[in-house]
Design goal:
Elements (H helix, E strand, L loop, with lengths): L13 E10 L2 E11 L3 H7 L6
Antiparallel strand pairs: 1-2
Length: about 50
C-alpha cells in the first residue's frame, strides 16, 4: 500500500489528486497532488475535454 501526505491548499481552487492512464494494454494510476488556481472547467479543458 502506498501513502501520500497532502499539504493544505492555500490559494488553489481545484486539486488534481491522481491520473488514470493507459499505456498499451495496461492501465495505471499515478498520484499527482497538484493544485490549480482555476476551477474544474479550466482543469478539464487543459486535458482536452469539453465542459458546459
Amino acid at each position: 500500500m502506498t501513502q501520500a501526505t497532502l499539504d493544505a491548499a492555500t490559494s488553489e481552487r481545484t486539486l488534481l489528486l491522481a491520473e488514470v492512464y493507459r499505456r498499451g494494454p495496461r492501465w495505471g494510476l499515478r498520484a499527482v497532488g497538484q493544485g490549480h488556481d482555476h476551477g474544474r472547467k479550466t482543469l478539464v479543458r487543459r486535458y482536452g475535454a469539453d465542459v458546459e
